[in-house]
Design brief:
Length: 326
């Protein structure tokens, strides 16, 4: 099965596709085919998602500039410093972007040690090399703030760290994770679970029932709808001051899904629409499934239904135009 998939992906590399923007480009450099993008459209009203195969500091800076949204005031680069021993973005990849916008790397404390304390979280940031590239700020080091949720399904507020108020512009940069933990990891997670303070994480996980301790929601659907509430609150709190970047690098499945294949570096996606940015990444990675039934199983396992809930909440659109900058 693995050998057959590799042959199919190699064949996809030979295909040239024409983007809605008029630029021709081949399959993603990691072998993921770009001819299976279920939500890619040509309508000019659809949000633009830019794509480059260049997974480098120069490529990241170039795709950021393609978005055309100049930063204003103090810039936060929202990422996650990740857990010790886990996969994380290379700080070297972020250096040119950080220098260009004079940004600060920002993240919130986590539920598990050592990231459940500011001291421990700063140590992880240093161990992973982020403090050597730019300043680091743990958003909830000195308190919390509640971002209002308007017409939410479950939440009244999305709680983050008080330092978040200090930033005028925010660049979300994540290492996209498809076949990893249960909930796929991308931009929408970066705006919710990863942005939330510790009590804010409890609020999200419980779908608004408690912020005192970790307690899972009554159902996966309640949890996903609560995340959609949180995404919309984060967007509203910094309205028109976000940009969203998904780095598809070192894609090595480490879950129990059948028929997966390692891709290595695929490319970088960027958009002003967080839902479109994640949907494009999902289409590229899960679109490599050998059949529609396998793709459906992969997406069900990793709760990509969040994208539909986020669209329904008004956080963005799933259909997108894919524009190559290579």
């Amino acid at each position: 099965m693995y050998s057959g998939l590799k042959k199919l992906l190699s064949l996809a590399l030979a295909l040239l596709l024409v983007s809605p923007g008029g630029a021709a480009f081949a399959a993603a450099s990691g072998g993921a085919p770009l001819d299976k993008l279920a939500h890619r459209v040509t309508e000019g009203s659809a949000p633009a998602v830019y794509f480059t195969k260049d997974v480098s500091a120069a490529g990241l800076l170039k795709i950021y500039e393609a978005l055309g949204r100049a930063p204003q005031g103090k810039v936060g680069i929202k990422l996650t410093f990740e857990s010790p021993g886990g996969p994380y973005l290379s700080p070297a990849l972020l250096k040119a972007l950080r220098d260009r916008v004079n940004g600060t790397f920002i993240d919130s404390n986590g539920l598990t040690p050592p990231r459940n304390s500011t001291e421990g979280h700063l140590r992880v940031a240093a161990d992973h090399g982020f403090t050597a590239v730019g300043p680091v700020d743990i958003l909830d080091a000195e308190g919390e703030l509640d971002m209002p949720v308007t017409n939410g399904k479950h939440l009244k507020y999305h709680r983050t760290g008080s330092h978040f108020a200090d930033y005028d512009s925010v660049i979300s940069v994540v290492r996209f994770k498809s076949h990893h933990i249960e909930n796929y990891g991308g931009t929408l997670k970066n705006l919710t679970i990863c942005l939330a303070s510790i009590s804010g994480k409890c609020n999200l996980h419980s779908a608004g029932r408690t912020s005192e301790s970790y307690s899972p929601a009554a159902s996966d659907e309640d949890f996903l709808e609560a995340l959609a509430d949180g995404v919309k609150a984060a967007l509203d709190y910094k309205k028109d001051r976000w940009v969203f970047i998904n780095v598809l690098s070192a894609i090595e499945p480490d879950d129990s899904c059948a028929n997966t294949t390692p891709f290595g570096d695929i490319g970088i996606l960027a958009s002003l629409d967080p839902v479109a940015a994640d949907q494009a990444a999902v289409d590229i990675t899960f679109g490599a499934a050998p059949s529609s039934a396998v793709r459906e199983e992969w997406e069900r396992t990793h709760n990509t239904r969040l994208l539909g809930y986020a669209e329904a909440a008004g956080a963005g659109r799933r259909n997108y135009r894919l524009l190559s900058i290579d």
